[in-house]
Specification:
Elements (H helix, E strand, L loop, with lengths): L8 E8 L5 H15 L6 H18 L3 E8 L2 E8 L21 H4 L1
Antiparallel strand pairs: 1-2, 2-3
Helix pairs in contact: 1-2
């Protein structure tokens, strides 16, 4: 695939705050960008990844942003938050009854 050219690389950035609507807003932003870029086949995967990352960021940081970057036929999903904490991949199977802890495993 090689390094993307300027013509094939496009970014979309959304600023989100720490509130209950952050993950739905992120999923909406993800829905719009891949469709606009003609990458509808990546929509569901990108929505899942963005939802997981934004949910984690909302727990740790006060302000965060979602950045989607189109590189040829791929979509890069990134979330930046205001927290100093590093992401931690937990053993999702250690507590099967836990309702969280699987996001980083999915990503």
């Amino acid at each position: 695939m090689g390094k993307p050219t300027i013509e094939s690389r496009t970014s979309h950035q959304t600023f989100l705050g720490p509130h209950a609507e952050a993950a739905p807003r992120a999923r909406l932003a993800v829905q719009e960008a891949p469709l606009r870029w003609g990458l509808a086949e990546l929509l569901e995967d990108a929505r899942l990844i963005a939802g997981e990352l934004v949910t984690n960021a909302a727990k740790l940081g006060e302000d965060f942003r979602l950045v989607l970057t189109r590189e040829d036929d791929a979509v890069l999903v990134e979330v930046f938050d205001s927290s100093e904490a590093e992401p931690v991949v937990r053993d999702a199977y250690a507590d099967a009854s836990s309702e969280d802890g699987r996001g980083m495993m999915l990503v």
